[in-house]
Structures are given as structure tokens and as C-alpha cells.
Amino acid sequence: MTHSALHTRACELFGVQYPIVQTGMGWVAGARLTAATSAAGGLGILASATMSVPELTTAIASVKERTENPFGVNLRSDQPDVDERIALMVREGVKVASFAQAPGERLVKTLKDQGVVVMPTVGARRHAEKVAAWGVDAVIAQGAEGGGHTGTVPTSLLLPQVCEAVDIPVIAAGGFFDGRGVVAALAYGAAGVAMGTRFLLSAESRVPDAVKARYLEATVTDTVVTKQVDGHSQRVIRTELVEHLDGAGRVTALPRSMANGLRFRKLSGRSIADLLKEGVAMHKSQGLSWAQVAMAANAPMLTKAALVDGRLDTGVLPTGQVVGVIDALPTVAEIIDRIMSEAQAVLTRLGAS
């Protein structure tokens, strides 16, 4: 029987057995990984930002074929077809919509009016307060240890601040991989943990085996935070390519970014008009320069090169620092079972009633 402390507000909100969320990692969190997480009692989240609407439709159907348990879809609020994606989620009964960036008050209301749980990711107390005022149902508070786009405040400092600031469930992210971390997050006031790298390095992850092997070689000091991938701070494994990007000037980076952005357009089946519309939205909503917009368009292709095509020489490897303490590729069910068993053991050792 699960310890009562491990059945949290997040479990009730998401309708899941365990307070564990698998994040919507682009090119990684497909139907197989998402369904495996939800089937094992956690909340799996599909990554839709790198999918076209038809691909998302297929992926949602595939998850539903594999499990009847609740799951979520990660959205980008600046995509021109975001309303079409939301309508699809509502029709298919998707439980949760997660966002890597603030979704905006209109989208929050649209989703909540349709009964979808809204959960954005935040990296600062003030961001949590802002989205809570909009009416979101929960937030993921990601500390600096987290992979991909990340902030500068360590999880141990960010998490208690966010938990004090809002009265909605807070999901802790950044540095979590075992049961000790779950108990620590609960002690800070969180209602669960979200993990990306731990699930990326699982049997069900579709990342090529050779790329997973490169991740397993990394230590906790083998990651770096760079803005040269897409203009935002992003934690990745330090590679020759990343060092080259950090040393490249805008004159050489911009043409490459524009070329990769067009490649992503062809891959996703989106028109140049849609790409330009999305770029304008990013320029306005995020305050990005046009050079940064071009870099943001380039980023999905750099990530795809590694995580899909297995091209370690031309791609980037988003990761959390936790990569340095992961040394195996268990199944998702084994990961969740082990974490929950460890958490129960820790609570017993601490004498929690």
C-alpha cells in the first residue's frame, strides 16, 4: 500500500496513482514513452511542439490504445495552430495541458472552460504568482539543475519560494531521479516531481541506443548552460559542437539557423507563412530579436539531429545535471516502482506516520 504522504494533491488533480510526471521532451516524449509512464501510475506527457497536428492526432490515438490512464500534451502557446491543437485535445479527452512557457491568460481560460488541467513550467516565484492569478491548476517549478531550457536558481531555493507563493499543486523539477528526491520535494511543500532526463534514459525512450550510451558516459560536470542553441539559456551535454556554437559569431550562426529553420518547416509540413507567423509571435510575446527568432527556429533541428537521427557530431543533447548519476536504462515501470519503493523506505526510516 502506498504511504499516505505519497498520495498528494497532484495525484488527485491528474487522476494518477503516483506523484510522478514525465515531462514533454521534444523528439523524445512520443506515444510509447508517454503511455508507459501513465500505465505505470505516473503522468506521461506527449511532446507536441515538434509534431504537426496530424502527427499529434496519431500520437494521441496511440497513447489511448496503450493505456486508459490519464496523460497530458505539452503545447507551445506561440504556435499559430495552438487553438486547433487544444480542440483536438478536448475531443480526445486529454487530461492535462502543459507549457514550457507561460500560456497567456486567454489560453488558460480556453482550456479550463473545456475541463483541461493547465500546468505551465516556471523558473521564478514571480512567474508562479502571475500564472496562478490567471487560474492555472498547477505549476512545474524547474530549478537550474534541470535540462533543456532552464533558469539560474537551484531547485532547493526555487521550490520553497514557489510553494510559499501559490496555493495550487507545485511539481518539483530539476535534479530528481530517485525516491529520496521525491521525499525531499514533499518536504519543501511540493505535490510531486517531474523528470525528463531520467525518462529519456529508459527502455521505452525512442532516443537511439548510441546516443543513450553517450548520455550514460556523462558526469555531473559534463553539462553546460548555453544561449547559442536558440537564444535562451539551455542546459546540454558539453560537446565539440556546443563549444563551437559558443565560439561562433552571429554572422556565421544566423545563416545556419535560417537554413535549419526551413528544414524544420519541411519536416513538420508547415508553410513558410506559418513559420513567419510563429516568428512574429515569438518576437512580440518573448521580446526576442530577429536573430534570436532565427536561432529558435534552428533549435529543433539541432536537437533532432542527435535525439532522432543519432548524429552526435551535428546535434545537441539537452539534459539535466542528474545525467551524471544515471547509469542504466530500465523500463519506465521499473523506474517508477523503484522510486516509489525508495520513497516509502525513506519515510519509514524517518518515522513518518
Write down the Rg: 19 Å
The average pLDDT is 89
Query: In sequence order, what are the helices and strands, one letter per element?
Result: HEHEHEHEHEHEEHEHEHHEEHHHHH
- Return the domain count: 2
How many β-strand stretches?
Answer: 11
What does the largest sheet look like? 8 strands, parallel, barrel
Uncertain segments are: none
3D architecture notes:
The structure is a single chain. The chain has 353 residues and is of the alpha/beta class. The protein folds into 2 domains: 4-206 and 326-349, TIM Barrel; 219-307, no CATH class. 48% of the residues lie in helices and 13% in strands. The protein is built from 15 helices and 11 strands. The chain has helices at 9-14, 31-39, 53-66, 82-92, 105-113, 125-134, 155-165, 179-188, 197-200, 209-217, 240-247, 250-268, 272-285, 290-307, 332-349; strands at residues 20-22, 43-47, 71-75, 96-99, 117-122, 139-142, 148-149, 170-173, 192-195, 223-226, 234-237. An 8-stranded parallel β-barrel has the order 1-2-3-4-5-6-8-9, surrounded by 7 helices. It has a 3-stranded antiparallel beta sheet with strand order 7-11-10, with no helix packed on it. Helix 8 (179-188) links the parallel strand 8 and strand 9. The chain is globular and about 55 Å long.
The gist of it:
48% of the residues lie in helices and 13% in strands.
Element layout with pairings:
Layout (H helix, E strand, L loop, with lengths): L8 H6 L5 E3 L8 H9 L3 E5 L5 H14 L4 E5 L6 H11 L3 E4 L5 H9 L3 E6 L2 H10 L4 E4 L5 E2 L5 H11 L4 E4 L5 H10 L3 E4 L1 H4 L8 H9 L5 E4 L7 E4 L2 H8 L2 H19 L3 H14 L4 H18 L24 H18 L4
Parallel strand pairs: 1-2, 1-9, 2-3, 3-4, 4-5, 5-6, 6-8, 8-9
Antiparallel strand pairs: 7-11, 10-11
